[in-house]
Every structure is written in C-alpha cells, then in structure tokens.
Amino acid sequence: MSRIAIVGTGRMGAGLGIGLAQAGHVVVFGSRDPDRRGDDFASLAPASKVVRHGECLVDARVVIVALPYPEVEPFARQHAATLRDKLVVDISNPFDRLPNNQVAGAEFTARAIADGARVVAAFKTNFAATLLDPIGPDGVRRDTFLAGDSEDDKHVVAGLARDLGFRPVDCGSLRNARILDGMVALMIELDRRYASGATRTSWKLA
Asked: Is 3 exposed, middle or buried (0-12, 13-18, 19+ CB in 10 A)?
C-alpha cells in the first residue's frame, strides 16, 4: 500500500485514483476546487480525500500528474522542490504540441523538476473509459505501456498497473516516451475509424 497523490480530477485522474483506492492504496486528489470535487468523490472513493494541488503532494510516495498537457510543465516547475526525489508518473498527452516528437512531454516534466527528478511516463495509451475495466472484449487483460530511466521506479509503476488489473509493458528509457506520445494520437485515429469513437480500444503487445 502506498500514499498516492493524483494531481487533477478529470476523467483520467478520477479513474486512476478510484481504481487505486479500491486496490487499497491511500489516495489524495489535488483539485482547483476541492470542496466541490470532494463531494463528487465521496461515494466513489470514500477512503480518499480532495485537497488543493500543492497540498496533495505532502507525504505522497507517488505523484500521478493528470493535468492537461499545457499545465504539466508549469506545475512541475512550481512544485519542483517538493517533487524532487518523489516518483512522478506523467500520464499527459501532448498531441500536436510537440512537433515531430523530438522530445517527450515527460522529458520536459523531468527537466522542469531538474536535479532529483524521477519521472515515469505511463497510462498514456489507455482511455479513461477502460481504467476501471482492464479486461478487453476478447477477454484478454489490457496493456499499460511505461517508460522511465529507473528500473526501480518502473517496477513500482508496474505494480500500480497490476493493481488496476492491467499488464504492464516496460518500454525502456524515458526517451522512448516520445514514441508513446505518438502512439496516443494514432490510437485515437484508429478508434475513430474502426471502433466508432467508442474510446475503449488500446494497444496490445502480442
């Protein structure tokens, strides 16, 4: 069991936080409007609590940043001193904001935190609709792709993925998150073309 901070209470943050709380982790959500969002989560994850963004970081072993991509780097820079030496999981997707994917969004997050940064890119290639439903229509467990420079940190994130019911797939160093960033846009395109935009598709390593 870990104390996990989820920064952001959108669909991805909510799904991850609720699933991890149900798996037995202590989850603290960070929100711009904790009073309103606290009521939203009271019945879904009763053991969790909702506080302001910066407050959720206190005593957290793992920090999952589930903010819209343009907000991630400023958040990481603002809270760099607190985030240093914590395990930061960046789930954000840059889409067309990083032309040619020459640098991954998660790499910018690590640079913003600077010395002591421990960043793993994960859950980028999973739709929010499947976070609490990790078994695909074929009855096979869905994959979660992750990338990071620390084997120990990736092991922790892989454990969280398993707690949610997913099969973790280690994609190597953080620079390989550049490829994951591109896979997300392609996944959305394929979902629109072949699944009528159901947002329940995912990549699978055979």
From this structure: middle
